[in-house]
Specification:
Number of helices: 14
Strand content: 15-25%
Radius of gyration: 26 Å
Length: about 350
């Protein structure tokens, strides 16, 4: 009996002891709880949202693409009255371009902003984004992407790739930055130039006489430093924001391509959202696209000056030779895209 009483007394003391600890100290959080708490602190208000969309892109926080992402996030929140929150992850935080697009399918990211041409792996229509000398100028580009032809490009590419593609945005005319001086197409002969790992880029720069080398954009600075490549091509602002003025002595204004950024979501995910949310996302995407296109257009000339201030020589080459080298390129290399290409060129 004495043993039973003693055991009961110990049990009561233990219960009281644990109860007192619960009232006087904070419970230890497991790793998952800690990560969730940290995420909420970084993204205040996400716990109140019914839907949280993670948006990833590879550009720095100084790039217009990041400004576009934040603009989009604000517009989505505004149009859904806070029901939908967009969390923005810049600088390849969620992966490089390939990983981000693959992430749409496996659910590691819900929205991606990147070049229309980056989905060439999934749809040949995306090759039109990088077709050399397809657009006459910025105004022509904008009339295409703000009109019926741009919508058709997004719809066809989306159907073939399983993506919801929208919000075509002026990314900037593509130029070459190089360790070697280039003034004519003959100066391109044998140049080791980094290009995206996409068929249209590789074939374009083969036509221009170079040795194109596919490489992730996040590896380009090191690649030029180590001599793996001697040059690269991209929009002026993007090239600057990747710090390529540190390794390239020349910027050559070839304007060989006018490429578009787009918003991408998995079609299956987008289709699962209610119609009101879908409409809010599409409207926000178009408004962000229009806003950012103007920002980029207004900033391009300013960035040429920034390149010069870094000691880089800006060259206006003889473009006739470049254009002649690419004459008939669409018909020869991508005959299935001639009809859509002609629609683009016919836009006035």
């Amino acid at each position: 009996m004495r043993k039973r009483i003693l055991c009961m007394g110990i049990a009561i003391m233990l219960v009281m002891s644990f109860g007192g600890c619960g009232n006087t100290s904070k419970p230890q959080e497991d790793l998952g709880s800690a990560v969730e708490t940290e995420a909420k602190e970084e993204n205040p208000g996400s716990e109140e949202a019914e839907i949280v969309l993670r948006l990833g892109h590879i550009n720095s926080e100084n790039d217009p693409t990041h400004e576009q992402a934040l603009f989009f996030a604000d517009k989505v929140a505004e149009k859904t009255e806070g029901r939908v929150k967009v969390e923005v992850y810049p600088s390849a935080t969620l992966g490089d371009t390939r990983e981000l697009i693959e992430g749409l399918g496996i659910g590691t990211v819900e929205v991606v902003i990147d070049g229309f041409g980056t989905v060439e792996t999934y749809t040949p229509v995306a090759s039109l984004d990088a077709m050399p000398f397809l657009y006459r100028d910025y105004d022509h580009f904008m009339r295409v992407w703000q009109g019926d032809v741009g919508k058709e490009l997004c719809d066809v590419a989306g159907t073939e790739s399983g993506l919801k593609i929208f919000g075509g945005t002026y990314r900037g005319a593509r130029v070459i930055t190089s360790t070697k001086e280039i003034r004519t197409v003959e100066d391109m002969k044998g140049l080791k130039i980094r290009v995206p790992n996409l068929d249209v880029y590789i074939k374009t720069f083969q036509a221009l006489g170079t040795t194109p080398t596919p490489m992730a954009m996040t590896e380009v600075l090191t690649g030029i430093q180590q001599g793996t490549v001697e040059a690269q091509e991209n929009p002026t602002i993007l090239s600057y924001n990747f710090g390529l003025y540190d390794v390239c002595d020349y910027l050559i204004r070839t304007n060989h391509m006018y490429s578009s950024n787009v918003f991408m979501m998995a079609e299956s995910y987008f289709a699962g959202l209610d119609q009101e949310t879908q409409q809010a996302i599409l409207e926000a995407g178009q408004e962000a696209a229009d806003y950012t296109s103007q920002v980029v257009a207004d900033s391009e000339e300013e960035y040429f000056t920034k390149w010069q201030e870094q000691g880089v020589e800006v060259i206006d080459p003889d473009l006739d030779g470049f254009m002649n080298a690419c004459d008939g390129f669409l018909e020869k290399e991508f005959p299935d895209l001639v009809e859509l290409g002609n629609k683009i060129q016919a836009v006035q």
